[in-house]
């Protein structure tokens, strides 16, 4: 497993470099606008390498015992990458994007191994709730990809945390290698995406990564580890849900790009991209600790994780005005 993870890391670093050359040659750039957090055009589409390497690694790892659920998720990830690449090149209507995501999520949710919500909902309602939660996670992961390094850090921490939980609880049936390879792919991308970023992930990366991470988390919840599955992505869940709920209450279109997330406000008030992404990464490491604690003590762990994320949100909102790091 370690050798495969190392190969994924090297392949993602090399693959992203090749994609960067292609994007520059064809002038496929993300040009700054009034909603951007960057000031110069940056190539967009680095997710091509990340998703290609990750899906190939997952396919190799699962090859001895393919099942229908895994095949559906892989087809969904590749399909969403293709649709999202088109969206990167020329913006698609929001409904088209949502229909593509639903086409990937619904069949995969039907094939989840057990009820996700621990029997609190009857079968059909459990599946429907899992579909809605998964769609929301795919979209919020895309919405949150707004500064250098943030989604690479989030992917590495959530997937790495999932790998650690799977290793610690082998009876859960989770595959630690899947989380580990996804985490190392994210780390390989960070070599190019850390501030100042040479390349952006693009929708071609953020949307499929949301699908793959969502699948890891929902499978974890279905195996009974609902608290670790909730804790690991808690910062992204909190920032996106609070921000977009406030926009919805004001009657604004939540699918439009904006600069109102907590991490964006910290950047606007003087914090560097690197400082904010590092703070999120440090918080995520604490969340991984709470996720481990949640294996045996879910209630206290969830409470501690919520306090930790709340403190980060306050820091981003109120203390981001200090001198840039």
Q: Your description of this structure?
A:
With 325 residues, the protein is mainly alpha-helical. The protein has a domain at 2-225. Helices cover 70% and strands 1% of the residues. It has helices at 2-25, 47-62, 68-89, 94-110, 123-143, 150-168, 176-193, 203-222, 226-231, 234-249, 262-268, 273-293, 298-318, and strands spanning 29-30, 42-43. Strands 1-2 form a two-stranded antiparallel ribbon. α2 (47-62) runs antiparallel to α7, α3 (68-89) packs antiparallel against α4 (94-110) and α11 (262-268) runs parallel beside α13 (298-318). It is globular, with a radius of gyration of 19 Å.
Through-space gap between termini: 37 Å
Residue-averaged pLDDT: 92
Radius of gyration: 19 Å
* Beta-strand residue fraction: under 5%
Helix content: over 70%
SSE succession: HEEHHHHHHHHHHHH
Structural class: mainly alpha
- Largest pleated sheet: 2 strands, antiparallel
Give the secondary structure arrangement, pairings included.
Blueprint: H1 2-25, E1 29-30, E2 42-43, H2 47-62, H3 68-89, H4 94-110, H5 123-143, H6 150-168, H7 176-193, H8 203-222, H9 226-231, H10 234-249, H11 262-268, H12 273-293, H13 298-318
Antiparallel strand pairs: 1-2
Helix pairs in contact: 1-2, 1-7, 2-3, 2-7, 2-8, 3-4, 3-8, 4-5, 5-8, 5-10, 6-7, 6-8, 6-12, 10-13, 11-13, 12-13
């Amino acid at each position: 497993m370690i050798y495969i993870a190392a190969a994924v890391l090297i392949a993602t670093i090399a693959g992203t470099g090749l994609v960067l050359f292609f994007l520059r040659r064809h002038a496929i750039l993300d040009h700054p606008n009034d909603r951007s957090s960057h000031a110069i055009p940056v190539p967009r589409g680095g997710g091509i390498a990340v998703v290609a390497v990750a899906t190939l690694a997952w396919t190799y790892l699962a090859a001895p015992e393919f099942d229908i659920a895994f095949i559906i998720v892989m087809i969904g990830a590749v399909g969403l990458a293709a649709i999202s690449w088109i969206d990167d090149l020329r913006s698609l209507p929001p409904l088209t994007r949502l229909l593509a995501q639903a086409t990937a999520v619904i069949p995969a949710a039907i094939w989840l191994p057990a009820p996700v919500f621990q029997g609190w909902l009857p079968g059909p309602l459990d599946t429907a709730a899992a579909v809605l939660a998964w769609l929301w996670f795919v979209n919020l992961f895309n919405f949150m990809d707004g500064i250098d390094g943030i989604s690479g850090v989030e992917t590495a921490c959530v997937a790495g945390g999932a790998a650690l939980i799977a290793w610690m609880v082998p009876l859960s049936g989770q595959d630690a290698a899947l989380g580990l390879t996804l985490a190392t792919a994210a780390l390989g991308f960070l070599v190019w995406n850390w501030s100042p970023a040479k390349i952006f992930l693009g929708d071609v990366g953020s949307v499929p990564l949301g699908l793959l991470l969502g699948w890891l988390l929902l499978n974890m919840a279905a195996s009974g580890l609902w608290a670790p599955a909730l804790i690991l992505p808690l910062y992204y869940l909190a920032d996106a849900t609070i921000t977009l709920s406030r926009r919805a209450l004001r009657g604004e279109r939540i699918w439009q790009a904006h600069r109102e997330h907590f991490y964006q406000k910290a950047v606007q008030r003087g914090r560097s991209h690197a400082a904010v992404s590092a703070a999120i990464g440090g918080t995520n490491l604490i969340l991984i600790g709470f996720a481990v604690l949640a294996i045996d003590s879910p209630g206290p762990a969830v409470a501690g994780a919520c306090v930790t994320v709340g403190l980060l949100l306050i820091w981003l909102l109120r203390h981001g005005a200090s001198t840039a790091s």
